[in-house]
Amino acid sequence: MTQQTFDAALDAPDPQMPSQDNTTQPALPPLPQALTGEGLGTYLLVLFGTGSVAAAVLTGALQGLWQVAVVWGFGVTLAIYASAALSGAHLNPAVSLAFVLWRGREFPARRLVPYIAAQLVGAVLAGATVAALFYRFIERFEHAKDIVRGMPGSELSAMIFGEYFPNPAMFGTGAAAHALVSPWQCALVEGFGTAILVLVIFALTSPNNSIAPKANLVPFFIGFTVAVLISLFAPLTQAGWNPARDFGPRLVAYVLGWGEIAIPGPRGGFWAYIVGPLIGGPIGGLVWQLTGQRFLAAPDG
């Protein structure tokens, strides 16, 4: 997702095709504007997403995985609409890294670290907002379930912020649950889901993809992709696909008393939600560049 994609997706030059003027580079938004967009968009994405989990876990307002997934998906859509004109709406370090590696003319490497920093700030602020709004409900939930914050089993409340494997709400937090998904399996699932997400993003934002939806509809289909992936894989890993989305709220949980349950997490597994997406996202982008983009860019005949 880049600035030019949403401003003029059908007219934008293909970064994989030779330019008629090799000196011409896609226009980049001013860095302060771009960082504001990334912070704002990631804040909204994480607010809607973690808020949907909080509403489901603490109040029962959302019933079933699909309802949570739909709220997540629409949250992603709204976050992109709110920030795309400012920054291009990456809102995810794995997406930013994929663009640096495979569409570097659109998104140069010098912007990667500032974008990730802005995304992380937005995610932390969103996690803090959810904590402030739902704090009394968290305490009520922990009291009703005899949960001691920071002790084994408190993943059941910490899962509002960071993610755990397998999904504690479905499988519990004991040894039998842990045997279902290892840290490396979690990283593999997170990497695979992020690869699918980035592949779809690259496909939807390719100027050569003539049947892709118009630019103003792309955010909806990206959000719908997130909802589908959550519906399939959230039982296994809670379906993060975004290092900032997981690590930002996880920092909030650490400060609020979940301690080692938040970081490094049970079995030291929090790394899976960072390493998996950062590897999987670029792989998904590369798959599109080597398959769909390659054939779409091929000359007729």
Task: Explain briefly what this protein structure is.
This protein is an all-alpha fold. The chain is built from 13 helices and no strands.
Describe this protein with a few key phrases.
globular, 301 residues, 65% helix, 13 helices, mainly alpha
Order of helices and strands: HHHHHHHHHHHHH
- The low-confidence parts are 7-23
Q: What shape does the CA trace take?
A: globular
Number of helices: 13
Please outline the major beta sheet: none
Number of strands: 0
N- to C-terminal separation?
A: 31 Å
User: How big a fraction of the residues is strand?
Assistant: under 5%
Helix % is: 55-70%
Class from helix and strand fractions: mainly alpha
| Radius of gyration, whole Å | 19 Å
Question: For the residues shown, what is the average pLDDT?
Answer: 91
3D structure, described in words:
With 301 residues, this protein is mainly α. The chain has 13 helices and no strands. Helix 3 packs across helix 10, helix 4 runs antiparallel to helix 5 and helix 9 runs antiparallel to helix 10.
Topology (elements, then pairings):
Blueprint lengths: L2 H6 L22 H29 L5 H23 L5 H10 L9 H33 L10 H4 L9 H4 L3 H4 L4 H22 L13 H20 L5 H16 L13 H19 L1 H6 L4
Helix pairs in contact: 2-3, 2-5, 3-10, 4-5, 4-12, 5-11, 9-10, 9-12, 11-12
